[in-house]
């Protein structure tokens, strides 16, 4: 039962995170307004994104803080950084390096078997 309750609480959060990711799209380098707690972008950008994702209107007044977004990414993207170095989780770019290292290692093992 405890697991199900946790899952039930996690689903609305995952839904919000998915809407946020869809809303932001592939745009990088967006500003963050810590006072308004939302994306700092031109009205044209907002209008163009809201035409694509109308349900994201709520993010105009309250977005997902970049630090919290990073944590949600770790939770929901299927790649979870569980490697700890010097008492800290590795940064996202380090996780990518770990995946490259694992891929290289697996390829070397496959070549040896051939």
SSE sequence, one letter per element: HEEHHEEH
Question: How many domains, in number, for the residues?
Answer: 2
Count of helical regions: 4
What shape does the CA trace take?
elongated
In total, the number of strands is 4
Structural class: mainly alpha
Strand fraction equals 5-15%
Could you describe the largest sheet, including whether it forms a barrel? 2 strands, antiparallel
N- to C-terminal distance: 48 Å
Estimated helix fraction: 55-70%
Oligomer: single chain
Sheet with the most strands: spatial strand order = 1-2
Mean of the pLDDT scores?
74
Low-confidence stretches: 80-84, 89-93
Radius of gyration: 19 Å
Domain Myb/SANT-like: 9-47
InterPro entries: Myb/SANT-like_dom (IPR024752)
Protein name: Myb/SANT-like domain-containing protein
Explain this structure.
With 114 residues, this protein is mostly helical. It folds into two domains: 65 residues, no CATH class; 36 residues. It is 58% helix and 9% strand. The chain is built from four helices and four strands. The strands form two sheets. A two-stranded antiparallel ribbon has the order 1-2. The longest helix has 23 residues. The N and C termini lie far apart (48 Å). About 9% of the residues have low confidence.
């Amino acid at each position: 039962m405890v697991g199900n309750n946790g899952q039930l609480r996690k689903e609305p959060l995952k839904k919000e995170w998915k809407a946020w990711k869809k809303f932001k799209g592939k745009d990088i380098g967006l500003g963050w307004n810590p006072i308004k707690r939302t994306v700092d972008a031109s009205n044209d950008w907002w209008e163009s994104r809201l035409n694509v994702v109308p349900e994201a209107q709520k993010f105009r007044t309250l977005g997902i803080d970049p630090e919290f977004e990073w944590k949600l990414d770790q939770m929901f993207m299927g790649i979870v950084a569980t490697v700890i170095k010097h008492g800290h989780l590795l940064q996202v770019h380090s996780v990518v390096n770990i995946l490259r290292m694992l891929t290289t290692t697996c390829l070397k093992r496959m070549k040896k078997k051939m």
